[in-house]
Prior knowledge:
Blueprint: E1 5-9, H1 16-30, E2 37-42, H2 47-54, E3 59-63, H3 80-85, E4 90-93, H4 96-101, H5 106-118, E5 122-127, H6 131-135, H7 139-154, E6 163-166, H8 180-195, H9 199-204, E7 207-209, H10 215-222, E8 229-232, H11 239-250
Parallel strand pairs: 1-2, 1-8, 2-3, 3-4, 4-5, 5-6, 6-7
Helix pairs in contact: 1-2, 1-11, 5-7, 7-8, 10-11
Amino acid sequence: MRARWVTGNWKMHGSLAANARLIDALKIGLGRIEEAACAVCVPFPYLAQVSALLSGTRIAWGAQNISEHDSGAYTGEVSGAMLTEFGCRFAIVGHSERRGLYAENDQRVAAKFLAAQRAGLTPILCVGETLEQRERGETESVVARQLDAVIAAAGASALERACLAYEPVWAIGTGRNATPRQAQEVHAFIRARIAAHDKGKAQQLTIMYGGSVKPGNAGELFAMPDVDGGLIGGASLVAEDFLAICAAASRQH
Length: 253
């Protein structure tokens, strides 16, 4: 059975006090959701706090970004080795906001993917199309290009130590979301693309959906055969909502 993860992406939100309240609520609530595999990816300054609060719990944690460099004169960058010192399990690479706002191209995303794995982290590789690309019928070609860049750099076998997240850019923070059928179509395409290299690894790969997942639509999305959980943005900052999404994922086991 594939691992089913619900991973919160806090983006550039949080404070020491708010984080503590949120994590306390998650620890209590997840005690009643036995099957949930849950993680939070937090801003760099809060990794020490999150590491201390979550150590020994069922909740994993990770970073929202990573440098492609292991060390050196790269002011402002954070290496994979630094992240592992704070107990990180995951690092998000290729998020649409990094691609769009900071001009991270496919090759740089692939380099970050490799850097995460060199450090022993599990990269969460994000792929997805803009609204304009979807309307032009380019969804599959865009997702294939993003995915193939990583396969070319790391090899298909590297996906065995990774998670994927399909995040239609037009559904992030907009209140819109892909229908369960639309999400399933792209997830199935991703799995088939990888199966062309290695069918066994494709079947075991966790592919999360990210794009305005909420308690009201999580159950339908997670019921799709190739949707293995969610990469959750705004709803991950509200304990009640995030726990409801985790519960929806646990019911699909």
